[in-house]
Description:
Elements: E1 4-14, E2 17-20, E3 23-32, E4 38-47, E5 59-70, E6 79-89, E7 92-94, H1 104-121, H2 128-169
Amino acid sequence: xxxxxxxxxxxVEIGAGYVxxxxxxxxxxxxxxxxxxxxxxxHVITDDFLVPSLAVGRTGTIAFVNRKVHLSKEFNNLPxxxxxxxxxxxxxxVAPREAHQSILPKVCLGIAALGLLLFLFTRSSSxxxxxxFISVAMIIPFGAIGLTHLNNGKNAKxxxxxxxxxxxxxxFKSQASVVYR
Length: 181
């Protein structure tokens, strides 16, 4: 899991960017701390839920993950260095959405379990090698896909919980109309 960084200050500048579906890309966001030092976040991406909170002149705390990734072709393979996960100010905090519960990991793990049962029941059949090959072809890819999606869901929930816990420790209250569930 990535480490979440919390920076407090006044938003001085938001660079140009564009929108694709629910993602917003900004070239940079500049924060000025209370001691007049400046924090500059380059190549920032955020979701629709945060856009109303991020405005020039607002003072608050930004939660973000600093990780270099390249986006897909829709974004022209843009490099992203910072992903904003939450914002808190005197009005309250805005937290990430709760991850959708997908049925894909359960289906994939179920198919892998069926492959394992197929292997166990056909060991003493007339074609054990063929049945073994078919069951291994079911177990490995579907098991890997299921476990990957299961871990991604757990990581997203852990990031969301950490942002909310930290904002509440700092004394911010939830903006019930903005925090999506």
